[in-house]
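Quick look at the format.
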Amino acid sequence: MRDEMEKALKGHDADYIEMRIEESQATRISYRGKELEDIGRTAATGGNVRALVKGGWGFVSFNSLDNLREKVELAISEARIVGAETSQLAPVEPVVDIVPPDFKMDPATVPLADKKNILDQYNDIIWSTPQVQTSNIGYGDNRKKVMFASSIGSYIEQSRCDVTLRLTVVARADSDVQQYGFSIGSNGDYSVVENSHDKVKEAAQKAVQMVTAPNVKGGEYTVVLDPILAGVFCHEAFGHLSESDFVYENPQMKEIMQMGRRFGSPILNIADGAAIPGLRGSFKYDDEGVRSTRSDLIREGVLVGRLHSRETAGKMGEKATGNARAIDYRFPPIVRMTNTIIEPGDTSFEDMIADIQEGVYAKNWYGGMTSMEMFTFSAGEAYMIRNGKIAEQLRPVVLSGNVFTTLANIDAIGNDLGMNQGGGCGKGGQSPLPVSNGSPHIRINKCLVGGR
């Protein structure tokens, strides 16, 4: 295939051309309530061509691998229609590399019947719990091999594998309904979904317990976030603002997200990078053939970096960071996060809550939304903090505020670190893209909390 791809790219009048060919196999299993809703396997082969002419992009995706040169010519003709300026791509060295698979327990080697058997056990655990009204279980794995070639002389082959399990339990007592859930995943280790029996039982029990838990009294509190919720906050509220296509195309955010601006105290450090090994957002090369990196975004409270494709880096006069990603061959790569982390500090959890007379401990996450720098998140689980101790359980709380004010109000960062490996990121119609996010426990002063 390499010869065919490279031959198809030669001899054209374009500023830049790239081609991706992808082979994938996927499994899906889902339950709604007690019933198996969907089970199956799929396989797909396809590819795309992207061409750049005078700053304009042409994009063609296809399922047939015949006549690749014609597909390149079509992408170039599209680019000529919209191109009307100088093309700007950050320079990168051409790469020739074949990246071998590195899967701890390849899900493709596990029979479909064995996968279903594990999920049947989890569903039986849920429905053996009194007061459960309904539940949802979703399992998926996807293994793909991607071949990339470009007009600068790069040729890369790499395989990726993604595994996810998401589970939600809904409990009811009279007219009161509450839910609890969790999600887990890996970048090629099926074993992470095999031994979650205790976790499933705990999820069902917590959903039932929340039905009788009180609501928090709305207001401003000192709030402690667990690593999962803090990681999601970092990803959703701050990480997307670091994606440079959003900054470059938005004059207001370009003004706000100026390098050197202070957003937090010197204890705050945030980074993103696919070069952080072993996580769902990890890979060696992005979908433009750029070597993955680890990028500091905030260092000692100051904005020092952002995430780039080759084009955004070229337009902003910065270096490409290896953050151009596409969910599959049907889409062009755009600037996306990979593994986004608040780095650990030096405060123990016990010391973090010790001087809080009345506060809230928020854990896990259920959902949320962001609008520019404003955010609203629903925690999946919450407890009151009273006199330096974890006290009564609450119904899930809602946290809201301005992300920059909230970052400035972080006054303690834990010495632990937890990673959320079960999420999927959505942007530009491409969802769910495998990512991970993580953090230690963090403490936020003057955080607005609501309970309904």
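Next, a different chain entirely:
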Amino acid sequence: MPVAPYTGDVLENPRSPRVRAVAKLSKRAARQETGLFLLEGPQAAREALAWASESVLELYATPSALEKHSDVRDAAVDAGVDLQYTTEAVLDAMADTVTPQGIVAVARQSPTALKDILAGEPTLLAICEEVRDPGNLGTIIRAADAAGADAVILTGRTVDLYNPKVVRSTTGSLFHLPVAVDLDLADVVERVHDAGLRVVAADVGGEDFVASRGLLGEPTAWLFGNEARGLDESALAHADLSLRLPIYGRAESLNLATAASVCLYETAFAQRAG
């Protein structure tokens, strides 16, 4: 049942302790201390409430924003989320972005354990080793979701999954598939092998992608490396196979997230064709 327009108190002080506590979640130290993270905008809130409502603790919004996005308001009420209306100034103080679109939420971090991912007998995984750019990581998670991958696994010094820029870049895909964090690559590869997957590294020094694409119909875990350096020798040594995407035009290279999207989709095509 739709909720009537809000007529209660509005949080007005941008310097209040509650506002400051939310704003601090843009910093990794506060996220690590509290186990919470920040969601910004109606799309992120909508997806979180639809797919992981138990993780959403608080929703802050201007009255006009929730009149416009009444489905978000109704979902928050149905889920029993603490809903607080605010002024634009308070939203601006809380948000990491310049334009939070009138909605900010606080959610509990809920990464997935690797053992739980592997227990589901996955056939397509994305392993990110020292991916440092938040936009790239978020886009890889989004591409993995779109390609039907079973999970994303973060190893090495990969950027924090709950960095606000990562969360925004996933456009809600963060809540659609399991993501494991803070793992050691060697241990991940050993356990992925035990689960019956081939580990394929995306590397400019690898074999020709087109010639080897027939192998992708089998259970595959893609290994993606750092934007600037790629995968170092020790990381490549863990892979069963390294493949490079061909460049047919004059581009010097492909952006990491773009290359990862191609690799994941080609594998999804091959597996579904099989």
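Residues 10-108 form a domain with the 60s Ribosomal Protein L30; Chain: A; fold (CATH 3.30.1330.30).

See the schema section for token definitions.
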